[in-house]
Write a structure and sequence with these properties.
This protein is of the alpha+beta class. The protein has six helices and eleven strands. α3 packs parallel to α4. The structure holds one DNA strand.
Length: about 260
DNA sequence: ATGGCTATATTCTATAGA
């Protein structure tokens, strides 16, 4: 197909790259993102389906782990260049949640922020520690004259407008004041929450859990975010959610979310 | 307050996700 005039960068929590590979390939074929950040691979490095992704026309870098977590960045007709594969600041953190690459001229940080449930507790403490490390690292990137994008599953519902019904989730780690304050602190460095900025009056959900027919009822959450730095923000032209992917049989509970940039 | 569903490894039961 003819190349899109804009550069599309997407984020997609696949909830298991092995069971979701057919959906991933169908999505890449139909939407042709230039860069795709993936989370929740739930696969080791050796289990990553490198050949199928290459055959689809994508280069890839990935950080795998047994059973849980795992992140990857795919680049269309190009190879991503690794910048870092861990978030600095906690030496014995072995969870595969961050991958930073140069891709199509943009520095992209692929993020899988800890869920943090149940809270309070050690998992919530880990989430807040991880968030602080992200904030510290992001500070070194935000003022770059080069374009930088933070993209991924942040496990943050930024405001009550970003969820179908906050009452049902008020004790959830994704809605806690500490979680929201950390996200606000990150944005205050100069990052822009693109989907909310372009769509101030629409919820723009990116996640619908598997329970109680939440997808069928459009009872979703907005937790997957794309945050350009000030150098990149002027190039943003559009953003959206590929909801059709969530509607497929045996879908991930997240939908791919993307932004288009001037090339 | 709980459970509803999906995926994984610890596999017929537990853990994690959000």
């Amino acid at each position: 197909m003819a190349r899109r005039k804009t550069l599309r960068i997407a984020t997609f929590n696949v909830n298991g790259i092995r069971p979701r590979l057919p959906h991933l390939l169908e999505w890449l074929e139909k939407e042709k993102p230039d860069v795709a950040c993936l989370q929740e691979l739930k696969a080791t490095d050796a289990q990553f389906p490198k050949e199928a992704i290459e055959a689809a026309g994508y280069g890839a870098l990935w950080v795998g782990q047994t059973s849980w977590n795992g992140v990857a960045v795919l680049t269309r007709d190009a190879e991503p260049v690794e910048s870092r594969r861990r978030l600095p600041g906690e030496r014995d953190d072995t969870q595969a949640r961050y991958l930073e690459v140069a891709a199509h001229g943009v520095m992209v940080g692929c993020i899988y922020l800890p869920n943090g449930n149940p809270q309070p507790g050690p998992k919530f403490d880990y989430k807040l520690r991880w968030f602080k490390r992200l904030i510290r690292h992001a500070k070194t990137l935000v003022d770059s004259e080069h374009p930088v994008l933070l993209a991924g599953d942040f496990n943050v519902v930024p405001t009550d407008f970003d969820i179908y019904n906050p009452k049902h989730w008020r004790r959830d780690a994704l809605l806690q004041p500490e979680t929201r304050e950390a996200y606000a602190t990150l944005l205050a460095q100069g990052w822009t929450d693109t989907l909310r900025e372009l769509y101030p009056d629409e919820p723009m959900f990116t996640f619908w859990d598997y329970f109680r027919q939440h997808w069928e009822r459009d009872a979703g959450l907005r937790i997957d975010h794309l945050l350009p730095n000030p150098a990149l923000w002027p190039r943003v032209r559009a953003a959206g959610v590929d909801r059709w992917v969530r509607g497929l049989e045996k879908a991930s509970d997240h939908a791919p979310t993307w932004i288009d940039l001037d090339r």
